Amino acid sequence: MSFEKEDTVVLHDKHSEFDGEVGTITQVVETMFGDPTYTVSFDDGQEVGISEDQLDAADEDEE
What we know:
Layout: E1 8-11, E2 22-30, E3 36-42, E4 45-51, E5 55-57
Antiparallel strand pairs: 1-2, 1-5, 2-3, 3-4
């Protein structure tokens, strides 16, 4: 599933301080291999270079 700017997502990255948190995609960048990477903003900061497999769409009640 690909995501677009302004989508609300849940980050799954055990190495991130935002693991399990809901954020909003603020930027989508395509790599030279054609794969998208995402910048996700959270209440307390942002994560850059997130791959699609680290994200799930947030349920409406999580937003």
